[in-house]
Known about the structure:
This protein is α+β, with helices and mostly antiparallel strands. The chain is built from nine helices and 14 strands.
Amino acid sequence: MKIESTEIRIRGRNINVPSVRIRNCTVITIGKWLKTAQLFDEELVEEADFTDPVGFISQLRKSPLLADVFTFAKRPEKSEPDFEFLFRWDNLAIVSTTSFENWWNALPQESRKNVRLAAKRGVVVKTVAFDDSLVSGIKKIYDETPIRQGRRFWHYRKDLASVRSMNATYLERSQFIGAFLNDELVGFIKYIRVDHTAVLIQILAMEAHRDKRLINALLKHVIELCEQQGISTLTYGKFNYGINQNSSLSEFKRRNGFIEVRFPRYFVPLTLKGKLAVSAGLHHGIQNLIPLQVTTFLHKTRSRLLNVVHRPSSGLRP
């Protein structure tokens, strides 16, 4: 076992971090003063590749990877804690995809109306291949505005090669769905199959066509496709981010049938420093010591400032 280098993306920037291979998994370390080890692309690791966490941790301790703490999560469908390691509750936004009809009938009337509105306004949604045409269309969507959801959009004006590279991951398990208006790509979704779950990686649409409810139309097609492919659940990031819980994104998830599913995330000290940090609660990061009310205020203030600064140049609503 030897130290390798793995490229990861943090806040839109690609950086290389130390890593090792244990069984079929890549383990990376991040952090400066406290080095935390975790599975690379943890949410995309299939169950057969990460079994027996206790034995896995034993191998990690013997590896040359210099980490202070190892963190891993249980799968959401197995949400009860069954290890003696310290944990805290994590969460995901999840919707069942076993029956499109059940999902559709449970939606609020407004959500179903938005899907129909997209079709009435000429939006065509279909599965698409990953090719030059799709990459060019994605870049055009990326370059529409530098601000999305009240924060700087990391992919704004990236070169075509970077756009291709970041969207070409896990192609053998990926599905792309596009929303088209007059044959122009105006929105897209990428999800990756992980066992019997679809992990939604990107869902993006042009702000200029917000009135056409592109995201609603895309999501409907995803639920239909997941049922056809025998996929039982779709995950869409976290349900509760701890800040700005009444954001438009959170409300969108609620209105489209997503629920919060909690599961334990474990933290295992590997060194004395790691043990002290975990005991003091520092393994969650310094930012977690800031009161929630303060963090929420800062995020909302940042969002308002960015929208004011960029509104004249983008000409788009936030």
